[in-house]
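User: Fold this, then the next.

Assistant: Folding the first:
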Amino acid sequence: MKFSQIEDAGTNLIEAYDASHIRINGRDYLAGLAVSAEQVAAGWGPSDGGDLRAEHIDALLAWQPQVVIIGTGERQRFPEPAIYFALLERGVGVEIMDTGAACRTYNILVSEGRRVVAGLMLA
């Protein structure tokens, strides 16, 4: 799916996504990644949403977000609650959804100026 162009210089916005890639600021990423308004970290996360581990969440927490969005691929897959308990324990909001919904939600929240980090998987 391709999004309408949003003009916001200096902010990482997701321009398009499908099962094989995510496009941010004109660059295509072909594997999982973490993204915030200021940075993109390629290679984040497991290749399968069912393999999400505490260390993946810890990597997102290092960015000090208000909200974490986790995109688990083409379908929504909830990890064990203990996996994302560190977020809840610190008062960080967390949403787990399919990657398409995660991309759309991320763009909305970052456009509102929220400190959001999205961990996005393709598979």
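Now the next one, as you asked:
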Amino acid sequence: MESPTARAKEATAKTNAWATFTKQFPNANKTQFGAQISIDEKRSITAEMFFFQCREMKAALGFAGMEGFPY
């Protein structure tokens, strides 16, 4: 999408995704994650958080001392 309105909606979706992620995982190493924008056939814009590949996912989320993995 090229219009200023579309870019503003993308930025808002990305900001909301980061805010939700940060609220849920306050100790996460945010350098290991990124927000990806998706636009569906109805032009709805959503953002999802993705984990960049690294050695220790639990450590990146701030759960290094926990046994298992939180659901």
